[in-house]
Amino acid sequence: MKKIGFTRLLAPAAFVSVNVFPLMSAAVLSRFLDPVDLGRYLLAYSFAYFITLADLGVGNGLIQSVGQGKDFYARSRYFSSGLTISFVISSVIMLSAIPIVFLLDDDNRVLYFSVIIQIAVMNIMNTTFVILRLLNRPDLKFKMQILFSLSLMISSVVTAMVFKSSRQVAFYGALSTIFIAIFTFIIAKRISESHGIRLRVPDLYRYRELFKIGSATFVHNIFGAFFTFGQRILIGALAGPFGVASVFYPQTLISKMHQYNAMTSEVFFIEMSSSKDESSIKKIYSSKLKINFIASISISLLFLFLGNQIFAVWLGSGVLLESVENIYIYYIFAYFFYSLTPMPYYLLNSLGMQWKVVVFDVIYAATFGLMILINLNSVDLVYFSKSFAGATCIYGAMMLLYANSILKRKIK
Question: Rounded to two decimals, what is the model's pTM?
Fold first, then answer.
């Protein structure tokens, strides 16, 4: 009982560390880095983030495969296959990045290579987090998340205050990530062995099953990356590094406030994937969606009434704050709808309808792209933010309506 109670305390602590610590780091960066240098760092991070797609949906595949009830031998094969996929592909991408980054100038070379290494290692670490969760040790997963977020925040804050350079922030961030990733892997390996689950030679059958289950998630993640980080790259091309920083701050703060829905929905996804009772799935979905709605409307109202004060405290004064104040209202509406999509997404996944989600992703991409193309010659930060909000609201509404229709038609 004590262990269960301690785990329940760790869950909100991990949530705070994963979401609040990066916001604290971002507040320090906005004060100690030049806005253009900050924009260069965020742009590099946006390019490198596409490396997270390298897992090809392995995390989702592991949850669905192992969650359906496998013996220790099968779990060993799945865990080994998932880790191998993440490690090999991330390593290939890191090695491939070497000749590419040397085409850049000296300042950008260190910045981009450090960020690429950090994101690639995080990709492997995320697979390890999934394994800890599937081993019924969420307490260890939460502890590692807290340790990682804390070390990354300390690294970013100290280097920004001492060196005032995005290159140093990226370099020391990569070093701290590598250290925590190694530590997490050692712990996961020992816990697996204590459960009688040893890492075995991966086999082709498990690779195929993981890819089959995770392929739709992989495509969905591509669209997700384009809309989270691809839009920063696009605004960087249209408005320069300062534009990237202007979009990053309202996008990050408001989305992080809504992150509770995404994190708790993952837990319900594991429950739905392991449940064979359709009425139970419906009950889980409906109750959680109501909680998500209450949380989302509360956060949106908070920003509607106190947005200026919140961003002033977070960013301080300056031209960056003035730019953010002109556009954050659109991100309030965008992330209200987007924060309601995790449960419809996980419902469709648990019912084996992953590719239906991809259809909505395509519509989302087409809607946003059309809005930008219509006014491409005169796109500014305000119009860009309006387009993003409009496309996101349409996407969220469609996902909710379709998921509810599935509940009525297929689940009695």
Answer: 0.81
